[in-house]
Design goal:
Radius of gyration: 26 Å
Shape: globular
Helix content: 40-55%
Structural class: alpha+beta
Distance between the termini: 91 Å
Strand order of the largest sheet: 1-3-4-2
Order of helices and strands: EHHEHHHEEHH
Length: 147
């Protein structure tokens, strides 16, 4: 197999993760898919079929991500390419083990709710549990006599 421009592959995990965060949703979907099978070069069409994409989408996306690669990553990329001299006779794309680990499963952290959101959540919970909103002290207030 003949790897195309191996010197353009990102080698630092932090750079790979930053590329993953900065790219488009479609590019991120492609990277996530490649990370599932590291070290396995596949023709573009086979990857597109696996993702349910139309043909030529990968070629289009690689052209679209070029500006990001050039301006923020010195032309480097988190995926690798084999040229048409590969075993399949077609361009192939793949991700190495280190890049796949950097892309890996993402953990989404949730931040604590803001004070007003906590208050709204507490009010909604009280209404579900008690059928009404409780006052500041937790006790139900008696209606005021307006006569």
């Amino acid at each position: 197999m003949t790897e195309h421009a191996p010197h353009n592959a990102l080698s630092e995990p932090d750079d790979v993760a930053r590329f993953h965060d900065r790219c488009s949703d479609l590019m991120r979907e492609l990277l996530d898919h490649l990370a599932e099978t590291p070290g396995q070069p596949r023709p573009f069409g086979q990857v597109e079929d696996a993702l349910g994409w139309p043909r030529r989408r990968i070629a289009s996306m690689l052209g679209g991500v070029c500006r990001l690669r050039q301006t923020e990553f010195g032309g480097r990329r988190p995926y690798r390419l084999n040229d048409e001299r590969s075993a399949s006779g077609r361009w192939e794309i793949w991700m190495d083990d280190d890049a796949a680990r950097a892309v890996g499963p993402r953990v989404v952290l949730t931040l604590p709710l803001a004070r007003t959101e906590r208050a709204s959540a507490a009010t909604a919970k009280a209404e579900r549990v008690h059928g009404h909103a409780e006052g500041a002290g937790g006790a139900r207030r008696a209606p005021r006599d307006l006569s």
